[in-house]
Amino acid sequence: MANGFCPALMRDLTEWYPVTQKVTEIGATQLLLDAPRPEVLQNSMSDNGHFKSAIVRYMPRGVISQAHTTIDCSIDQTPAFLEKNVSFDQSVSMGLYFAVDTIRQYCADASRTVLVGAPPTPLMVMVRDAILTKLNAAYQLMDQKIAQAIIAAAPATASINISLAANTLDLDSGMTKLLGVLQDSEFCDMPQIVGGSNLFRNFTQIRRANALYPNQAGLQADLNSDYDFYYDRKMRTLLATNDILAIDRGSVALLENIQNVGAFAGQHGTSFFGTMVDPRVQCRGIGNAYQDIVWDMQIREIDCPTTLSNAYTGGTINATRGYAVYISKSFTVWTTPTDVNDGADVNAGFNGIKRFTITNT
């Protein structure tokens, strides 16, 4: 705990162990960042700070019973569109308060300003670093909401068995069955699989390790080319301990409502409004993927003592001169309607999501 001193030995933990810079893996969110987005829908709903709801129309494809074996003038069907309303119904936010008197206690570097966000605004280094450190809270709530939306759209489960062979997980037969189900469901491209299943995670790690070694023919094969796995520990509770979701790319999408842009950005009253992205590079192969998430930011100068509410404790804060920083995001998760296929279609009720329970019996 700093006591108003600035000794030469006072160092930042992240200089050698970046524990506070880590974001707990947000597999469901990362899956959507990697998935194709319906840009035409995104652009029509959010335009430079203006936003509106949208209606998506779609028509179920034809089925065999709607065709016949004779050539005549009879009518087999009357094509009609179905509709789905889409709106930005999800949001996450967090607020931070920084007292000027607290910043004064630290080394001069804490008050050095750096440009952050768009439009660029000067922030004290301590304020910027604290925002990034506490941003994990908003990441986790956003990921929870995304996971819940995908789970809510998922159908009933099917069981896939992992057999145990000595100390290795052998999913050859189970994986073949899973991929066969996905092929029958007409998955295109490489399936995206998300979940917190230890069994499936361990199996995936073993496959990745085996891919590094030559096979019996002396060739090194990529054994992971048949799916992308996104690990999300919180889905053990939200979904089930060993359940996973397989997503057909494009059937689920993240739509963002970025608010502090255009005429709604810049200085307004005693607050500065803008956007920011997370510049940090994460471990475990995630890299800078989170830079694709744009956060709305409001910086409010508090120039006289006031009272602020504390949403975390439920109490209040007696705020002296300082800064209140608010980070937020408005979004929705698009999921393909379950009636996109006709009731007589081989994939009736399928919306691009398959749920599996992994077992080892």
Write up what this structure looks like.
Helix content is 22%, strand content 30%. With 361 residues, the chain is an alpha+beta fold. The protein has two domains: 24-47 and 87-150 and 254-331, no CATH class; 156-253 and 336-359, hypothetical protein PF0899 fold. Strands 5, 14, 15, 16, 17 and 20 form a six-stranded antiparallel beta sheet that branches. It is globular, with a radius of gyration of 25 Å.
Write the layout of secondary structure elements.
Blueprint: H1 27-34, H2 39-45, E1 46-47, E2 50-51, E3 54-58, E4 82-86, E5 90-99, H3 100-104, E6 113-116, E7 121-124, H4 125-153, E8 157-161, E9 163-165, E10 168-170, H5 172-184, E11 192-195, H6 198-210, E12 228-231, H7 235-238, E13 243-247, E14 252-257, E15 266-268, E16 271-276, E17 295-302, E18 306-309, E19 316-319, E20 322-335, E21 353-359
